[in-house]
UniProtKB/TrEMBL annotation:
The keyword Membrane applies. Keywords: Membrane, Transmembrane, Transmembrane helix. It comes from Achromobacter arsenitoxydans SY8. Pfam families: TctB (PF07331). This is Inner membrane protein 2. The chain crosses the membrane at residues 37-55, 76-103, 109-128. The lineage of its organism: Bacteria, Pseudomonadati, Pseudomonadota, Betaproteobacteria, Burkholderiales. InterPro entries: DUF1468.
Length: 145
């Protein structure tokens, strides 16, 4: 495998993100840019990186170390579960759990991952929900936050 294959995959992802993000519209105009800007900007960045890899690629890529593919698959499972439980559990609980499990995949201890997950999710909740006015779901903690 080489970098060009990754570049082609990045281009395909950028096309998918553009197609999916193009139809995003807010029911009312609350800001000049709108919600579609974020996925389209990410698609542009991913697409440019993909083009660079296709153009400059061709270098051999080392295979993943033993056990890495299993951790990658588990991360995909965790992200999928996170997406399904995000609204019901709320941002703080879902993000805390996600951070703990991903941290454990990378060899973190239970206590450090739990503290980091809770602190990070609370920090980002306050930052986005309270400071930047990006509404995040409260979920099970709706009455507390």
């Amino acid at each position: 495998m080489n970098d060009r294959i990754l570049g082609i995959a990045a281009l395909a992802l950028a096309v998918f993100m553009t197609a999916a993000g193009w139809g995003i519209e807010a029911p009312f105009a609350y800001e000049p840019v709108g919600p579609r800007a974020f996925p389209l900007l990410l698609a542009l960045i991913i697409g440019l990186c993909g083009l660079w890899l296709v153009y400059k690629g061709g270098h051999a890529v080392e295979p993943n170390p033993a056990g890495a593919n299993g951790r990658i698959a588990l991360m995909v499972v965790f992200v999928t579960i996170y997406a399904f439980l995000f609204q019901w559990l709320g941002f703080v609980i879902a993000t805390s759990l996600m951070t703990v499990f991903v941290g454990r995949l990378f060899g973190g201890g239970w206590v450090k991952c739990a503290i980091g997950g809770v602190v990070m999710s609370l920090f980002f909740f306050v930052l986005f929900d309270k400071v930047l006015d990006v509404v995040l779901p409260g979920g099970l903690l709706e009455n507390l936050i």
